[in-house]
Amino acid sequence: MAHIPQSRLDQVLDRFDQIEARMGATTDSDEIVALSKEHAALQNVAKAARELNALRQEVNDLETMIAEGGDDADMLAMMREEYEELKAQLPDREHDMQILLLPKDKDDGAPVMIEVRAGTGGDEAALFAGDLFRMYQRYAQLQGWKMEMVSASEGEMGGYKEVIASIKGDGPYGRLKFESGVHRVQRVPDTETQGRIHTSAATVAVLPEPEDVDIKIEDKDLRIDVFRASGPGGQSVNTTDSAVRITHIPTGIVASQQDEKSQHKNRAKAMLVLRARLYEAERQRVDSIRAADRKGQIGSGDRSERIRTYNFPQGRVTDHRINLTLYNLGKVIAGEALGEVIDALAAEDQAARLAAMETENPA
Protein backbone atom coordinates (compact mmCIF):
# COMPACT_ATOMS: atom_id res chain seq x y z
CA MET A 1 0.00 0.00 0.00
CA ALA A 2 1.28 3.42 -0.96
CA HIS A 3 2.34 5.71 1.86
CA ILE A 4 0.49 9.03 1.79
CA PRO A 5 3.06 11.84 1.58
CA GLN A 6 3.01 14.27 4.49
CA SER A 7 2.73 17.10 1.96
CA ARG A 8 -0.64 15.70 0.82
CA LEU A 9 -2.01 15.70 4.36
CA ASP A 10 -0.66 19.22 4.92
CA GLN A 11 -2.37 20.34 1.71
CA VAL A 12 -5.74 19.08 2.96
CA LEU A 13 -5.38 20.74 6.37
CA ASP A 14 -4.13 24.02 4.89
CA ARG A 15 -7.10 24.19 2.55
CA PHE A 16 -9.53 23.39 5.37
CA ASP A 17 -8.04 26.16 7.53
CA GLN A 18 -8.25 28.60 4.61
CA ILE A 19 -11.93 27.78 4.11
CA GLU A 20 -12.75 28.30 7.78
CA ALA A 21 -10.86 31.60 7.84
CA ARG A 22 -12.60 32.81 4.68
CA MET A 23 -16.05 31.77 5.97
CA GLY A 24 -15.52 34.03 8.97
CA ALA A 25 -14.45 36.97 6.82
CA THR A 26 -16.68 37.08 3.75
CA THR A 27 -20.17 38.58 3.57
CA ASP A 28 -20.87 37.51 -0.01
CA SER A 29 -23.82 35.08 0.14
CA ASP A 30 -22.81 33.12 -2.99
CA GLU A 31 -19.28 32.67 -1.68
CA ILE A 32 -20.59 31.59 1.73
CA VAL A 33 -22.75 28.90 0.09
CA ALA A 34 -19.81 27.64 -2.01
CA LEU A 35 -17.45 27.64 0.99
CA SER A 36 -20.01 25.86 3.17
CA LYS A 37 -20.31 23.05 0.64
CA GLU A 38 -16.54 22.66 0.39
CA HIS A 39 -16.23 22.81 4.19
CA ALA A 40 -18.80 20.02 4.59
CA ALA A 41 -17.03 17.91 1.96
CA LEU A 42 -13.61 18.36 3.59
CA GLN A 43 -14.60 18.12 7.26
CA ASN A 44 -14.24 14.35 7.62
CA VAL A 45 -11.10 14.34 5.46
CA ALA A 46 -9.43 16.98 7.65
CA LYS A 47 -10.40 15.11 10.82
CA ALA A 48 -8.91 11.87 9.47
CA ALA A 49 -5.75 13.73 8.37
CA ARG A 50 -5.26 15.14 11.87
CA GLU A 51 -5.77 11.70 13.45
CA LEU A 52 -3.29 10.09 11.03
CA ASN A 53 -0.77 12.83 11.75
CA ALA A 54 -1.17 12.27 15.49
CA LEU A 55 -0.76 8.51 15.10
CA ARG A 56 2.36 8.94 12.96
CA GLN A 57 3.83 11.33 15.53
CA GLU A 58 3.16 8.90 18.41
CA VAL A 59 4.85 6.07 16.49
CA ASN A 60 7.85 8.28 15.67
CA ASP A 61 8.18 9.49 19.27
CA LEU A 62 8.06 5.95 20.67
CA GLU A 63 10.58 4.77 18.08
CA THR A 64 12.97 7.54 19.18
CA MET A 65 12.55 6.76 22.89
CA ILE A 66 13.08 3.03 22.31
CA ALA A 67 16.23 3.76 20.26
CA GLU A 68 17.59 5.90 23.08
CA GLY A 69 17.02 3.00 25.51
CA GLY A 70 17.24 3.46 29.27
CA ASP A 71 17.81 1.67 32.57
CA ASP A 72 14.16 0.82 33.25
CA ALA A 73 13.60 -2.52 31.50
CA ASP A 74 9.89 -2.64 32.39
CA MET A 75 9.27 0.83 30.98
CA LEU A 76 11.16 -0.08 27.81
CA ALA A 77 9.05 -3.24 27.40
CA MET A 78 5.85 -1.23 27.80
CA MET A 79 7.00 1.28 25.17
CA ARG A 80 7.86 -1.51 22.74
CA GLU A 81 4.41 -3.07 23.24
CA GLU A 82 2.66 0.26 22.71
CA TYR A 83 4.86 0.96 19.68
CA GLU A 84 3.90 -2.34 18.04
CA GLU A 85 0.19 -1.78 18.75
CA LEU A 86 0.19 1.74 17.27
CA LYS A 87 2.37 0.75 14.31
CA ALA A 88 -0.10 -2.05 13.50
CA GLN A 89 -2.88 0.55 13.22
CA LEU A 90 -1.05 2.58 10.56
CA PRO A 91 -1.91 0.47 7.46
CA ASP A 92 -5.66 0.62 8.14
CA ARG A 93 -5.51 4.36 8.87
CA GLU A 94 -3.48 4.96 5.69
CA HIS A 95 -5.99 2.92 3.68
CA ASP A 96 -8.98 4.81 5.13
CA MET A 97 -7.23 8.09 4.37
CA GLN A 98 -6.54 7.02 0.79
CA ILE A 99 -10.24 6.26 0.31
CA LEU A 100 -11.16 9.73 1.62
CA LEU A 101 -8.62 11.32 -0.75
CA LEU A 102 -10.03 9.62 -3.84
CA PRO A 103 -11.39 12.15 -6.37
CA LYS A 104 -15.09 12.64 -5.81
CA ASP A 105 -17.65 12.57 -8.59
CA LYS A 106 -18.88 16.16 -8.49
CA ASP A 107 -22.43 14.89 -9.08
CA ASP A 108 -22.52 12.40 -6.18
CA GLY A 109 -24.54 14.81 -4.08
CA ALA A 110 -26.90 15.75 -6.89
CA PRO A 111 -30.60 14.91 -7.09
CA VAL A 112 -31.48 12.44 -9.84
CA MET A 113 -33.93 11.72 -12.58
CA ILE A 114 -34.57 7.97 -12.63
CA GLU A 115 -36.14 6.37 -15.70
CA VAL A 116 -37.39 2.77 -15.73
CA ARG A 117 -38.53 1.25 -19.03
CA ALA A 118 -39.95 -2.16 -19.89
CA GLY A 119 -37.66 -4.09 -22.22
CA THR A 120 -38.07 -7.50 -23.82
CA GLY A 121 -40.87 -9.62 -22.40
CA GLY A 122 -44.13 -7.83 -23.21
CA ASP A 123 -46.60 -7.53 -20.32
CA GLU A 124 -44.25 -9.32 -17.93
CA ALA A 125 -41.52 -6.75 -18.68
CA ALA A 126 -43.92 -3.94 -17.80
CA LEU A 127 -44.85 -5.70 -14.54
CA PHE A 128 -41.15 -6.11 -13.74
CA ALA A 129 -40.53 -2.42 -14.49
CA GLY A 130 -43.25 -1.67 -11.93
CA ASP A 131 -41.52 -3.91 -9.37
CA LEU A 132 -38.21 -2.12 -9.93
CA PHE A 133 -39.82 1.30 -9.62
CA ARG A 134 -41.46 0.35 -6.32
CA MET A 135 -38.09 -1.01 -5.15
CA TYR A 136 -36.53 2.41 -5.75
CA GLN A 137 -39.53 4.16 -4.14
CA ARG A 138 -39.05 2.14 -0.95
CA TYR A 139 -35.28 2.55 -0.98
CA ALA A 140 -35.67 6.32 -1.41
CA GLN A 141 -38.10 6.39 1.50
CA LEU A 142 -35.66 4.48 3.72
CA GLN A 143 -32.91 6.97 2.81
CA GLY A 144 -35.12 9.91 3.72
CA TRP A 145 -35.21 11.16 0.12
CA LYS A 146 -38.16 12.82 -1.57
CA MET A 147 -39.39 11.05 -4.71
CA GLU A 148 -41.77 12.77 -7.11
CA MET A 149 -43.37 11.22 -10.18
CA VAL A 150 -42.61 13.10 -13.40
CA SER A 151 -44.43 10.93 -15.93
CA ALA A 152 -45.73 7.39 -16.31
CA SER A 153 -47.04 5.18 -19.11
CA GLU A 154 -48.78 2.16 -17.59
CA GLY A 155 -48.72 -1.35 -19.03
CA GLU A 156 -51.92 -3.05 -20.14
CA MET A 157 -51.65 -5.72 -17.43
CA GLY A 158 -50.13 -3.38 -14.83
CA GLY A 159 -46.67 -2.07 -14.13
CA TYR A 160 -45.15 0.49 -16.47
CA LYS A 161 -44.04 0.71 -20.06
CA GLU A 162 -42.06 3.75 -18.91
CA VAL A 163 -41.92 5.71 -15.66
CA ILE A 164 -39.79 8.73 -14.77
CA ALA A 165 -39.34 10.21 -11.32
CA SER A 166 -37.25 12.88 -9.62
CA ILE A 167 -35.42 12.06 -6.38
CA LYS A 168 -34.05 14.76 -4.09
CA GLY A 169 -32.22 14.45 -0.78
CA ASP A 170 -28.79 13.73 0.66
CA GLY A 171 -26.66 12.36 -2.19
CA PRO A 172 -29.04 10.18 -4.25
CA TYR A 173 -26.83 10.12 -7.35
CA GLY A 174 -23.81 8.87 -5.41
CA ARG A 175 -25.84 5.81 -4.39
CA LEU A 176 -28.13 5.19 -7.35
CA LYS A 177 -25.61 5.74 -10.17
CA PHE A 178 -24.72 2.04 -9.94
CA GLU A 179 -28.28 1.11 -10.96
CA SER A 180 -28.04 2.23 -14.60
CA GLY A 181 -28.25 -0.70 -16.99
CA VAL A 182 -30.36 -3.67 -18.00
CA HIS A 183 -32.06 -5.58 -15.18
CA ARG A 184 -33.23 -9.12 -15.99
CA VAL A 185 -35.91 -11.14 -14.22
CA GLN A 186 -36.53 -14.89 -14.31
CA ARG A 187 -39.86 -16.03 -12.91
CA VAL A 188 -43.19 -17.66 -13.70
CA PRO A 189 -45.55 -14.85 -14.80
CA ASP A 190 -49.09 -14.73 -13.38
CA THR A 191 -50.36 -15.17 -16.95
CA GLU A 192 -48.37 -18.41 -17.46
CA THR A 193 -50.67 -21.46 -17.15
CA GLN A 194 -47.98 -24.11 -17.72
CA GLY A 195 -45.72 -22.94 -14.91
CA ARG A 196 -42.86 -22.13 -17.25
CA ILE A 197 -40.16 -19.68 -16.22
CA HIS A 198 -39.94 -16.62 -18.44
CA THR A 199 -37.05 -14.19 -18.80
CA SER A 200 -37.87 -10.50 -19.17
CA ALA A 201 -35.92 -7.29 -18.84
CA ALA A 202 -36.26 -3.65 -17.93
CA THR A 203 -33.86 -0.78 -18.43
CA VAL A 204 -32.91 1.69 -15.68
CA ALA A 205 -31.28 5.06 -16.33
CA VAL A 206 -30.13 7.26 -13.45
CA LEU A 207 -29.36 10.81 -14.56
CA PRO A 208 -27.98 13.54 -12.28
CA GLU A 209 -30.09 16.67 -12.28
CA PRO A 210 -27.72 19.59 -12.86
CA GLU A 211 -28.43 22.04 -10.02
CA ASP A 212 -25.46 24.39 -10.23
CA VAL A 213 -24.41 23.63 -13.80
CA ASP A 214 -25.60 25.79 -16.64
CA ILE A 215 -26.76 23.56 -19.46
CA LYS A 216 -26.92 25.96 -22.37
CA ILE A 217 -29.95 25.20 -24.53
CA GLU A 218 -30.57 27.58 -27.42
CA ASP A 219 -34.16 28.12 -28.55
CA LYS A 220 -33.05 27.69 -32.15
CA ASP A 221 -31.85 24.17 -31.30
CA LEU A 222 -35.28 23.04 -30.09
CA ARG A 223 -38.22 21.69 -32.05
CA ILE A 224 -41.39 21.76 -29.96
CA ASP A 225 -44.41 19.75 -31.08
CA VAL A 226 -47.78 19.76 -29.36
CA PHE A 227 -50.28 16.97 -29.78
CA ARG A 228 -53.36 15.43 -28.22
CA ALA A 229 -52.59 13.23 -25.23
CA SER A 230 -53.65 9.60 -25.22
CA GLY A 231 -54.72 7.43 -22.33
CA PRO A 232 -56.65 8.24 -19.14
CA GLY A 233 -56.75 11.75 -17.80
CA GLY A 234 -58.95 14.70 -16.97
CA GLN A 235 -61.59 16.12 -19.27
CA SER A 236 -59.17 18.32 -21.20
CA VAL A 237 -56.31 15.83 -21.47
CA ASN A 238 -57.74 13.95 -24.43
CA THR A 239 -59.58 16.84 -26.07
CA THR A 240 -56.89 19.53 -26.40
CA ASP A 241 -53.34 19.64 -27.72
CA SER A 242 -51.81 19.69 -24.24
CA ALA A 243 -49.07 17.07 -24.73
CA VAL A 244 -45.59 18.36 -25.56
CA ARG A 245 -42.64 16.77 -27.33
CA ILE A 246 -39.32 18.65 -27.31
CA THR A 247 -36.49 17.57 -29.62
CA HIS A 248 -32.97 18.87 -29.18
CA ILE A 249 -31.99 19.05 -32.84
CA PRO A 250 -28.16 18.90 -32.53
CA THR A 251 -28.21 15.68 -30.47
CA GLY A 252 -31.57 14.18 -31.43
CA ILE A 253 -32.44 13.77 -27.74
CA VAL A 254 -36.21 13.85 -27.17
CA ALA A 255 -38.38 14.43 -24.08
CA SER A 256 -42.18 14.11 -24.12
CA GLN A 257 -44.77 14.87 -21.44
CA GLN A 258 -48.53 14.45 -21.43
CA ASP A 259 -49.48 13.78 -17.80
CA GLU A 260 -50.62 17.34 -17.03
CA LYS A 261 -53.74 19.02 -18.40
CA SER A 262 -51.79 22.20 -19.00
CA GLN A 263 -49.52 22.50 -22.04
CA HIS A 264 -47.38 24.94 -20.03
CA LYS A 265 -46.83 22.41 -17.21
CA ASN A 266 -46.07 19.61 -19.68
CA ARG A 267 -43.51 21.82 -21.41
CA ALA A 268 -41.82 22.66 -18.09
CA LYS A 269 -41.59 18.96 -17.15
CA ALA A 270 -40.32 18.02 -20.60
CA MET A 271 -37.58 20.66 -20.35
CA LEU A 272 -36.57 19.29 -16.92
CA VAL A 273 -36.17 15.79 -18.38
CA LEU A 274 -34.41 17.14 -21.49
CA ARG A 275 -31.87 19.07 -19.40
CA ALA A 276 -31.05 15.96 -17.35
CA ARG A 277 -30.65 13.83 -20.50
CA LEU A 278 -28.43 16.42 -22.20
CA TYR A 279 -26.29 16.72 -19.07
CA GLU A 280 -25.88 12.95 -18.83
CA ALA A 281 -25.00 12.74 -22.55
CA GLU A 282 -22.27 15.34 -22.02
CA ARG A 283 -20.99 13.48 -18.93
CA GLN A 284 -20.72 10.26 -20.90
CA ARG A 285 -18.99 12.02 -23.80
CA VAL A 286 -16.36 13.51 -21.48
CA ASP A 287 -15.94 10.23 -19.57
CA SER A 288 -15.42 8.28 -22.78
CA ILE A 289 -12.67 10.69 -23.82
CA ARG A 290 -10.94 10.58 -20.43
CA ALA A 291 -11.23 6.85 -19.86
CA ALA A 292 -11.81 5.10 -23.17
CA ASP A 293 -10.03 2.04 -21.80
CA ARG A 294 -12.29 1.68 -18.76
CA LYS A 295 -15.61 0.80 -20.38
CA GLY A 296 -16.28 -1.88 -17.80
CA GLN A 297 -16.02 0.51 -14.88
CA ILE A 298 -18.74 0.17 -12.26
CA GLY A 299 -21.19 3.04 -12.45
CA SER A 300 -20.37 3.87 -16.05
CA GLY A 301 -24.08 3.93 -16.80
CA ASP A 302 -23.89 1.74 -19.92
CA ARG A 303 -27.57 0.96 -20.37
CA SER A 304 -26.98 -1.70 -23.03
CA GLU A 305 -25.23 -4.03 -20.59
CA ARG A 306 -27.07 -6.56 -18.43
CA ILE A 307 -26.02 -5.69 -14.91
CA ARG A 308 -28.27 -7.74 -12.62
CA THR A 309 -30.52 -10.81 -12.63
CA TYR A 310 -33.44 -11.39 -10.25
CA ASN A 311 -34.16 -15.15 -10.16
CA PHE A 312 -37.44 -15.69 -8.31
CA PRO A 313 -37.55 -19.54 -8.30
CA GLN A 314 -34.22 -19.59 -6.45
CA GLY A 315 -34.77 -16.37 -4.48
CA ARG A 316 -31.46 -15.17 -5.88
CA VAL A 317 -30.11 -11.77 -6.94
CA THR A 318 -26.88 -11.66 -8.93
CA ASP A 319 -24.98 -8.52 -9.88
CA HIS A 320 -22.86 -9.57 -12.83
CA ARG A 321 -20.38 -6.68 -12.63
CA ILE A 322 -18.85 -7.87 -9.36
CA ASN A 323 -20.09 -11.50 -9.31
CA LEU A 324 -22.16 -10.79 -6.21
CA THR A 325 -24.95 -13.25 -5.39
CA LEU A 326 -27.42 -12.78 -2.54
CA TYR A 327 -30.24 -15.12 -1.56
CA ASN A 328 -32.59 -12.50 -0.16
CA LEU A 329 -34.39 -11.49 -3.35
CA GLY A 330 -37.63 -10.70 -1.49
CA LYS A 331 -35.94 -8.05 0.66
CA VAL A 332 -33.93 -6.65 -2.25
CA ILE A 333 -36.93 -6.24 -4.58
CA ALA A 334 -38.83 -4.70 -1.65
CA GLY A 335 -36.08 -2.07 -1.41
CA GLU A 336 -35.14 -3.07 2.13
CA ALA A 337 -31.89 -4.89 1.21
CA LEU A 338 -31.04 -2.98 -1.97
CA GLY A 339 -28.48 -1.10 0.11
CA GLU A 340 -26.47 -4.33 0.55
CA VAL A 341 -26.02 -4.55 -3.24
CA ILE A 342 -25.19 -0.86 -3.57
CA ASP A 343 -22.70 -1.03 -0.67
CA ALA A 344 -20.85 -3.89 -2.39
CA LEU A 345 -20.77 -2.01 -5.70
CA ALA A 346 -19.53 1.17 -4.02
CA ALA A 347 -16.78 -0.75 -2.19
CA GLU A 348 -15.65 -2.43 -5.42
CA ASP A 349 -15.66 0.92 -7.21
CA GLN A 350 -13.52 2.45 -4.43
CA ALA A 351 -11.06 -0.44 -4.57
CA ALA A 352 -10.74 -0.18 -8.36
CA ARG A 353 -10.15 3.57 -8.24
CA LEU A 354 -7.67 3.21 -5.39
CA ALA A 355 -5.71 0.57 -7.34
CA ALA A 356 -5.71 2.83 -10.41
CA MET A 357 -4.48 5.78 -8.33
CA GLU A 358 -1.66 3.71 -6.80
CA THR A 359 -0.64 2.49 -10.27
CA GLU A 360 -0.55 6.04 -11.60
CA ASN A 361 1.23 7.40 -8.50
CA PRO A 362 3.46 4.65 -7.07
CA ALA A 363 5.25 5.39 -3.80
Layout of helices and strands:
Elements: H1 6-23, H2 29-68, H3 73-101, E1 112-118, H4 122-143, E2 146-154, E3 160-168, H5 172-176, E4 181-187, E5 198-208, E6 222-227, E7 243-248, E8 253-257, H6 263-290, E9 306-311, E10 316-319, E11 324-326, H7 329-333, H8 338-360
Parallel strand pairs: 4-9
Antiparallel strand pairs: 1-3, 1-5, 2-3, 4-5, 6-7, 7-8, 9-10, 10-11
Helix pairs in contact: 1-2, 2-3
Q: Judging from the principal axes of the Cα atoms, what is the shape? A: flat
What proportion of the residues form beta strands (DSSP E)? 15-25%
The number of helices is: 8
Could you name the ranges where pLDDT drops below 50 across 5 or more consecutive residues? Answer: 232-237, 292-303
* DSSP strand tally: 11
Would you tell me the overall average pLDDT? 84
Q: Report the top-level CATH class of the largest domain.
A: Alpha Beta
Q: What CATH architecture of the largest domain do you see? A: 2-Layer Sandwich
- Tally of structural domains: 3
The topology string of helices and strands comes to: HHHEHEEHEEEEEHEEEHH
Coarse structural class: alpha+beta
Report the biggest beta sheet as strand number plus sense, adding barrel if it closes: 8 strands, mixed
Helix fraction, binned, reads: 40-55%
Task: Give the neighbour order of strands across the main sheet.
Answer: 2-3-1-5-4-9-10-11
Oligomer: single chain
Report the C-alpha radius of gyration, rounded. Answer: 26 Å
- CATH topology of the largest domain, by name, is Alpha-Beta Plaits
Distance between the termini: 8 Å
